[in-house]
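Note on ligand handling. Small-molecule inputs were canonicalized before submission; formal charges were left as drawn, and no protonation-state enumeration was performed. Where a ligand contained multiple stereocentres, the stereochemistry in the source SMILES was retained. For flavin-adenine dinucleotide, this procedure yielded the string shown in the input block below.
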Amino acid sequence: MSATLGVLIKKTMPEARVILFERLPDVALESSNPWNNAGTGHAALCELNYMPDSKDGSLPDASKAIAINEQFQVSRQFWAELVKLGVLQSPETFIRTVPHMTFVTGAKDVDYLKRRFAALKDQPLFAGLAYSEDKKTISKWAPLIVEGRNSGSYAATFIDQGTDVDYGAITQQLISWLRAEGVEVLTATEVTRLYQYQDKTWRLTLKGKHSGRLIKAEKVFVGAGGWALKLLQAARIPEIKGYGTFPVSGHFLRTDNPVLVAKHHAKVYSQAAVGAPPMSVPHLDTRVVDGKTSLLFGPFAGLNPKFLKSGSILDLPLSVRPANILPYLSVAIKNFSLVRYLISEILKSKKQKLQSLKDFIPSSDLQGWELYEAGQRAQVIKPVKGGGTLQFGTEVISAKDSSIAGLLGASPGASVSVSVMLDVMQKFYPERFSSFEPALKKLIPSYGKKLNADPALAKKTLASTAKTLKLKA
Ligand SMILES: Cc1cc2nc3c(=O)[nH]c(=O)nc-3n(C[C@H](O)[C@H](O)[C@H](O)COP(=O)(O)OP(=O)(O)OC[C@H]3O[C@@H](n4cnc5c(N)ncnc54)[C@H](O)[C@@H]3O)c2cc1C
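Structure output:
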């Protein structure tokens, strides 16, 4: 997020002096690291949680799915333009076509998927979406999920337009460019305190390699992932009052077995278990990291009080303030089924986790699948009248004086980083923002327009970004 914002700032205000702080020895070691996230280019092509079923059996509402796809197209265009400008390296170092599929079983979910397909198939941004209940067809798309499966009702959708993205590689490449543009990147340097002077500028206190250095800043973006809450609380801005963070850890099973890898080329998302958080839908993914292909299955969620993978077990207790006790308590009470689900996930043995995989790919040999810990998701607890609510999206929190902003939450995450950082730019520079538009239009050719509302533009944009990023159109 911070790397993306840095590029947006340097492309719109080349004269701006930007400093980036990273507490770890290098950038992209937390959630943006390729092994800490699933690398899905979230465009709502396959994820059911972005388009829940209707209550009355009518077509489900496609508006959220379309909005997420629109945001992903902003990222795609930005990355494509940055490839042309030489900011990002050749596209295969960070993005590639991996078809997106949804696979469901049982009459109820088959009916839902069919209606989801009906609602999306004519939307310009979902062009090419296919639906099937036929074993042979699904087997062509993803043989592993139907081989050995008992006959019964199941269905799948498939779209060639899906992507696998290495957000760590994007981060590294953007930061290299920022360094070359004179941005100071201070690694092994933690921001511990923020103090606002009367003139509204900020003083940052640092720990680590650059401790003792005086940093004064006009604008501060808190792109600290799970620790954003902690830093915004340290800044004492009233806008953060009442907010909390609900941490959910994630584990995946991974195999590099060439036989299995060769047989599966898709990201197959399914339906979440009862009580499971929306980001815990099981999926079997092709992942390409550093040119090497693996398969990933998960995530298996769990309760862990850390807000970052390399955070502290005190993160959760130390985030409690008088203003957020009620939101924390009410979320724990209202989401008891979620808490119960997370505890049950922690208690699952590796054998039980492999059994979940077996349910997904019934006839495959499960030798060589290893369980590993991915990143930590920090979901937003938002204060509402009389308590709090658990949100599964992202939220930009900014001070009224536009001097500081931070990002809470995790989903759809890195896929929509460009749209979210444009929101931050707007919050930082409400009066100047319109003057950035010419530069932004060069980076995002469809800037200001809705692609899904203009089929010709959608087609043209999808085709041109696909060409530059070497993706299937
Ligand atoms: C299990 C899992 C699966 C996911 N899958 C996907 C997916 O498939 N697709 C997708 O688009 N998104 C996915 N996401 C979400 C995505 O990974 C995140 O939204 C995105 O990486 C967040 O980027 P960020 O820059 O905000 O945070 P991060 O990448 O976590 O970076 C924050 C950085 O701030 C540093 N930092 C923190 N505090 C301080 C401090 N005080 N001083 C200095 N530095 C500090 C940290 O060390 C870290 O490097 C997933 C996340 C998880 C956990």
